[in-house]
Q: What sequence folds into this?
């Protein structure tokens, strides 16, 4: 039997993978910032569905802080990638580089949550990190502007690509 | 030029860092509240920095109908993915959940090949093999 976290994690990866295809399609029709705006609309439109049963009103200030900070961190990552591409980063280099982000999560989980992994799990983590970076690599089409900001694949929704 | 490179590299590393922190904070949030509450707070927190990103682009928002449909659907599907991500984080270790979910480009690549008839490059082929090996290890 699989570990209980594996199925939802796999579902998340599949859904975000489909999101990546939608972003490819969307980025063929509009620029990155426009697509970003409409993605945000999608996020906001879904919010009323979650209000009931959220128990938000009963949460402590510290809970509210951590949850909101999670969103801010994701948004800051997106902002920083935009800024990198605007400053001349090649998407074919910057995207695979940023795909290594779980490395930071693993480090924080090790240091702050004292999570410990077995040898094989470490092998799996290393393979997954390498795979994420390699799968994100797309050579630039010849003659294209290398750092044109076009969205494609951020964790949880958005990435840039050209 | 080295100086030019270091400028974008700094921002790319910042993106890597903040997304990594995001994964860690989601673990903290998922242990404290249900996925619905976490998603609401996530969107609230995400909006200010994304508005900053849009401000840099001077809020030049295009309105191609199909583009809008792709964008909005993207946000809705990403939301569902988030809920699954939160559920996984509440049940497992962040050190395993974050790397597995970060394999999402695997499905983008497969979908792009099957649906968009895109070609796959050699590096991606190696990436697919490594991703499959990682999933097999996690699922053992």
A:
């Amino acid at each position: 039997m699989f570990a209980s976290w594996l199925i939802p994690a796999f579902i998340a990866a599949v859904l975000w993978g489909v999101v990546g295809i939608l972003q490819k399609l969307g980025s063929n029709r509009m620029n990155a910032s426009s697509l970003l705006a409409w993605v945000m609309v999608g996020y906001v439109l879904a919010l009323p569905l979650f209000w009931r049963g959220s128990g938000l009103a009963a949460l402590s200030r510290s809970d509210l802080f951590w949850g909101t900070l999670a969103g801010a961190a994701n948004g800051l990552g997106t902002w920083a990638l935009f800024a990198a591409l605007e400053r001349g980063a090649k998407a074919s280099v910057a995207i695979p580089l940023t795909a290594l982000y779980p490395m930071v999560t693993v480090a924080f989980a090790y240091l702050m949550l004292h999570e410990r992994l077995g040898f094989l799990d470490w092998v799996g983590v290393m393979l997954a990190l390498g795979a994420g970076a390699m799968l994100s690599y797309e050579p630039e089409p010849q003659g294209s502007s290398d750092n044109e900001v076009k969205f494609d694949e951020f964790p949880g929704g958005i990435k840039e690509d050209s | 030029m080295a100086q030019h490179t270091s400028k974008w590299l700094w921002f790319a590393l910042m993106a890597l860092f903040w997304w990594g922190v995001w994964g860690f904070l989601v673990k903290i949030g998922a242990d404290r509240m249900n996925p619905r509450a976490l998603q609401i707070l996530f969107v609230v927190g995400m909006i200010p920095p994304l508005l900053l990103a849009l401000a840099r682009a001077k809020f030049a928002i295009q309105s191609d109908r199909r583009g809008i449909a792709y964008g909005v659907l993207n946000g809705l599907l990403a939301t569902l993915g988030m809920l699954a991500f939160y559920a996984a984080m509440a049940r497992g270790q962040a050190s395993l959940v974050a790397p597995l979910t970060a394999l999402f480009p695997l499905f983008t690549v497969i979908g792009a090949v099957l649906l968009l008839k895109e070609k796959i490059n050699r590096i991606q082929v190696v990436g697919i093999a490594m991703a499959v090996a990682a999933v097999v290890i996690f699922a053992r």
